[in-house]
Design brief:
Distance between the termini: 17 Å
Number of strands: 0
Helix content: over 70%
Radius of gyration: 14 Å
Keywords: Membrane, Transmembrane, Transmembrane helix
Strand content: under 5%
Oligomer: single chain
Number of domains: 1
Structural class: mainly alpha
Protein backbone atom coordinates (compact mmCIF):
# COMPACT_ATOMS: atom_id res chain seq x y z
CA UNK A 1 0.00 0.00 0.00
CA UNK A 2 2.77 2.44 0.91
CA UNK A 3 4.65 1.75 -2.34
CA UNK A 4 1.49 2.59 -4.26
CA UNK A 5 1.28 6.00 -2.57
CA UNK A 6 4.93 6.75 -3.32
CA UNK A 7 4.43 5.71 -6.94
CA UNK A 8 1.38 7.99 -7.26
CA UNK A 9 3.27 10.93 -5.78
CA UNK A 10 6.16 10.40 -8.21
CA UNK A 11 3.73 10.27 -11.13
CA UNK A 12 2.01 13.45 -9.96
CA UNK A 13 5.34 15.26 -9.65
CA UNK A 14 6.28 14.16 -13.15
CA UNK A 15 2.95 15.40 -14.51
CA UNK A 16 3.35 18.76 -12.77
CA UNK A 17 6.92 19.10 -14.06
CA UNK A 18 5.80 18.40 -17.63
CA UNK A 19 2.95 20.89 -17.24
CA UNK A 20 5.23 23.65 -15.96
CA UNK A 21 7.62 23.13 -18.86
CA UNK A 22 4.75 23.09 -21.37
CA UNK A 23 3.14 26.17 -19.81
CA UNK A 24 6.43 28.08 -20.03
CA UNK A 25 6.57 27.21 -23.72
CA UNK A 26 3.04 28.61 -24.03
CA UNK A 27 4.17 31.86 -22.40
CA UNK A 28 7.11 32.06 -24.81
CA UNK A 29 4.73 31.45 -27.73
CA UNK A 30 2.40 34.18 -26.43
CA UNK A 31 5.30 36.64 -26.34
CA UNK A 32 6.06 35.75 -29.97
CA UNK A 33 2.52 37.01 -30.84
CA UNK A 34 1.10 33.54 -31.57
CA UNK A 35 -1.88 33.80 -29.24
CA UNK A 36 -3.85 30.86 -30.66
CA UNK A 37 -0.84 28.54 -30.46
CA UNK A 38 -0.14 29.72 -26.92
CA UNK A 39 -3.75 29.04 -25.93
CA UNK A 40 -3.60 25.49 -27.29
CA UNK A 41 -0.26 24.79 -25.60
CA UNK A 42 -1.57 26.09 -22.27
CA UNK A 43 -4.68 23.95 -22.70
CA UNK A 44 -2.46 20.90 -23.19
CA UNK A 45 -0.52 21.86 -20.04
CA UNK A 46 -3.77 22.11 -18.10
CA UNK A 47 -4.95 18.70 -19.31
CA UNK A 48 -1.64 17.03 -18.46
CA UNK A 49 -1.97 18.40 -14.93
CA UNK A 50 -5.64 17.71 -14.28
CA UNK A 51 -6.04 14.30 -15.91
CA UNK A 52 -3.65 12.39 -13.59
CA UNK A 53 -5.35 13.92 -10.54
CA UNK A 54 -8.74 12.80 -11.83
CA UNK A 55 -7.44 9.24 -12.33
CA UNK A 56 -5.85 9.25 -8.88
CA UNK A 57 -9.04 10.21 -7.06
CA UNK A 58 -11.49 8.10 -9.05
Amino acid sequence: MENNIVFNVVLMLAAVWISIYTFSFGVWTWKKKNKFGAFIVMLIALVTTVLPFIYLFL
